[in-house]
């Protein structure tokens, strides 16, 4: 009898947390993109979110879903990037700048603790999770942190202290100066340990200089930046980004990546796109 080949499932490339947009809407304005008069189409938003999730999974990632039960008063909980920044089994929680989002911390902390994470994080100063803190470098030995609009510089030393382990890393604070790009993940996207795309004008001159010394940076145009081209989800060699950032897509192809375009128009009404809806977790 001929031997039967055993199918080996491909190894997952990433693990990502998403929150279902059950309660998503725009009912206040805390960034230049938000206008409560520009109502969210809830059915369309749910379809867009489901498509983003499916695209992430097709690209090779596992997606965990947080169900926002009891959080009907928190319409922005869909943006899980802001939940925390995670290193190993430690999750340094957000302390939101605006009162409208402060209640999200309770739900994120509950989910993370129930899934085995040690939760940390000060409530003495604002910090907005992986929306303002992105890992890069070899073995994630660099944490780029946006400061200014949402995150206080005092978070930098606290992050370094609370997330330290046997593998050293450094925290790099970079100042954001354009109100349209109020989190670092709206204007900077590490593709791999030594390469990232960015919109330089979102940062002050000192930040631009310091970032160029730490990682190879490929700029995107202002036109594409306004399409949230840097707010992308990277899964291996696939980069998932909002449709309309065509020049960035061509650039990514030249760099050896496969762009996957998704429609995030309903979420952009709240100032977020693909990356804002995701939080990277350890495998």
From TrEMBL:
Q: Which GO terms describe its biological process?
A: L-arginine deiminase pathway
Annotated SUPFAM superfamilies: Pentein
Its Gene Ontology molecular function terms? arginine deiminase activity
Q: What is this protein called?
A: Amidinotransferase
